[in-house]
Amino acid sequence: MDVAKQQTKSGNLNEFSMVLLNNLLSLPLGLSLIIVFNEWEYLYSSPVLRIPVFWVVATSSGLLGLAISFTSMWFLHQTGPTTYSLVGSLNKIPISLAGILLFKVPINVPNLLSILFGLFAGVFFAKAKMPK
Length: 132
Known about the structure:
Layout: H1 2-10, H2 15-36, H3 39-45, H4 52-78, H5 81-90, H6 92-102, H7 109-129
Helix pairs in contact: 2-4, 5-7, 6-7
């Protein structure tokens, strides 16, 4: 991440270039998995691909993913790799709590302790990465 921060500060890569590179790097893996697991035949014969609403939803999903990539790169550019990593690790806590509430998981000591463990791990990580 320090290299990414240096590249963005030096002007070699702006947010658009980083998002484009990130998405281009994922294409070979995705295409190879489609070929290896023979998913292209299923995609070609799928009736869902002929429904216009599917294409509206798929395009909207892609645009939202692009927006998330842009905001992630902007956040990395505005802050630093440590803060970016800390936020990435601490965002799991509200997601865990939401999962417990939405899926009606029984609230018990092991669940709460694991969430607290994640919270303290993120705080200790941030404390360890702070400049002395």
